[in-house]
Amino acid sequence: MLETDLKVCSRCIYDERVASISFDSNGICNYCHQIDHLSKLYSTGSPVGEKKWHEIVDKIKSAGRGKKYDCIVGVSGGTDSSFMVYLAKKAGLRPLAVHYDNTWNSAIATQNIEKVLRALDVDLYTHVVNNKESDDIFRSFFYAGVAEIEASTDLALAEVMYRAAAKFKVKYVLEGHSFITEGITPVGRNYFDGRYIKSIHRRFGTMKIKSYPLMTFFRFLWWTTIIRVRKIRPFWYIDYDKEKARAFLEKKYDWQYYGGHHLENRMTAFFHGIYAPQKFGMDFRNNTLSALVRLGKLSREKAWSLYNTPPKAEDGLVSYFKKRLDLSDEKYEEIMNASPKNWTEYPTYKKRFELLRPMFLILAKANLVPMSFYLKYCFPSTAPS
Amino acid sequence: MLRTRIIPALLLKNESLVKTVGFGKFTYVGDPANTVRIFNELAVDELLFLDISASREKRGPNLKVLRDIADECFMPLGYGGGIKTFGDAKAVFDIGFEKVAVNFSCFENLHLVNELSKHFGSQAVIASIDVKATLFGRKKVYTLGGKKNTRKDPVNWARELEDLGAGEILLTSIDHEGTWNGFDYDLVKRVAGAVSIPVIAHGGAGHADHINKVVISSNASAVALGSMVVFQKKGMGVLVNFPNIKINE
Amino acid sequence: MITIVDYGMGNLGSLKNMFKRIGVNVLVESDPNKLAIADKLILPGVGSFDAAMSRINNSSGLREILEQKANVEKVPILGVCLGMQLLTLSSEEGELPGLGWIPAQTTRFPIKGGLKVPHMGWNVALPSNENKLFVGIVREPRYYFVHSYLVKVEDPEHSLMQTHHGVDFDSAIGRDNIYGVQFHPEKSHRFGKQILKNFTDL
After folding, report:
1. Residues whose CB is less than 8 angstroms from the CB of residue A354 and which lie 6 or more positions away in sequence, other chains included
2. Which CATH number fits domain B5-230: 3.20.20.70, 3.90.1150.10, 3.90.1300.10, 3.30.420.40?
3. Does the domain spanning A46-282+313-341 belong to CATH 3.40.50.300?
4. With an 8 Å Cβ cutoff, is C110 touching chain B?
5. Residue extents of the structural domains in chain C
6. Chain A nearest C-alpha distance from B198 (Å)
7. Which pLDDT tens digit goes with each residue over A48-101?
């Protein structure tokens, strides 16, 4: 039994505060069920799943014949993407590594990318945004009072991967997402798309967007239906042990761990360690902790106790954030203490995605959009609590 | 034994780091202070920052950006770009930079080099010489980002600047810049042979062999790297790094 | 409290920053009264010998308090770059006498055989005598040098480290509580950091 008045899933540690959560008669949450459903659908970690992965590898190889690269791997310097590059090479693929640099990378991230790609002899394609533009967009989100301060980075990476794929005529993108080790991010509270980013920036930004790669709805459809780039998530099919992967990378490539999920980038570190917990009461560590509990690697009690200790942040992270975005101490405190705003208060493409649900289901089944996209974007979300 | 210095030369355009080819087209490289942190971790010997638009835009050094950079650095720092007066240079030194580089200002005010050298010491003053081949193939000194032909001969100009008290020459071949094809070995050799102060070869490095050649055969005392420290490899993406170069001296 | 002497010449910002990285709070002071209460002093210096000595001599009360701290109270003092040259008796660069706290001479590098002067860049320093200031240093540490004049001590016991650039010279010197390093520890990465850390532990 966990020491709390909150209702907590009996299998993982998602509690009632998680958006759009529900519990069945055994106290198991809908997110556990969703992961079970996906595991079944993709036969994750089973010989059937392995076979599916090999079939995909063969498809990638034949589609890539005569071209310089046959697949794209998005890299960040983190565990999942670094291991993914190794996996691709091991499977006999010819990957092109792609990176979107929001100019807040830690030195560790850059060095990790360099070491792994050099050792595996993999080429790198990057898009570096103008640092002032990047900061202008981050500042807009901060001023807007919404949670999705990381949205611009996530969407930009997706857009850049599509651009690289189109440039080199590559039909497959390999993503390091694993619903087993990360869980599915709950729907509802957080949301982003190209229109959302544009409208926030239009309201609060001060400089024109020139170098930032914005994925508009049109571009999204173009990449998925005309250029037809398929997104594959190998860890949905095969077994993936994150801790083992980390140890392997450290030993083989002198890769370095940066201390937490996604903490290789300092804006991400600020978001996860300070912004989301302090302003929105959102602590995303329950995603990875719940994953560990479901895998039997951590007890519920230990996970819950870890979850309830405040996240640690790099020394000087807040002052770096203020300095970069040119915020006085007063302005920073004012915005951090102001009541949070919600994405529903700004123009987005959400309604459009919901209206086009049948089309996106077809695209998801064909791997042209991730199934998780379909589940998150094409259904109406419950109002935020 | 004094090690041959290998110096990343980073280009500033307004408040961003960029990389150019032949002083023309540019790519964004990143945020200056954040990038410096990477070089700190890589323990590079020295860093040189050159503001490529300052003189053309008729402005001085951006002290705010330089302060952010100096706060992060634990290695010697040099800065060039828009330094016109003694005051400009002093402001840069006060922030914590070891050296300043002057280029365009030397043509407007010949005494600036002398003034700076007298007060701050010649080791703090780098005379920056950009060279391009004219239509007729003659190598001339250009300034203002390669846009203005000064009609000066690089060797004579280097001698003049040495006499005025410059402590080092940063010799950049505009034609070779960003090409990865090697330095202008002949140019470096002629200039290095004409002065007794160190010459930093800049423009064209693509491989460790190029660096060895320009040091051993052309007598460069140091080498400045641009593309090699900023891109993963020729034609590929931006990835700040510092190659492990052994000079076979 | 370690205090950096601000007499108008020297890379104070970088020194302060490196101490901050080590986790040590230092003060930067020009006021003799504030310097009087320091536990340890750093004497920085970038520029010319005479310019530095005349500033020290002509700033009201400064020379006096430095002499007091160095020779009466005998607090640890570290001279950096030009600051180390100021500790000597005199320099060929200038006319004025130095502080003279360590019997040594500062002379110009010989311009012979194509030797490039100033001595500028990373060079190796090898220990000549054991000292607490160099505890934990790796076998062949390299530091960043930038100077046109070199120091040679009269008493070999006062040489702590030696470096070669055309000729051998003393790259670090020390006598009782007085120390000097010719190189820039605040610009020498982890090698320099170690020295500054040792100084704080003295």
Report:
1. A377, A378, A379, A380
2. 3.20.20.70
3. no
4. no
5. 2-201
6. 32
7. 999 999 999 999 999 999 999 999 999 999 999 999 999 999 999 999 999 999
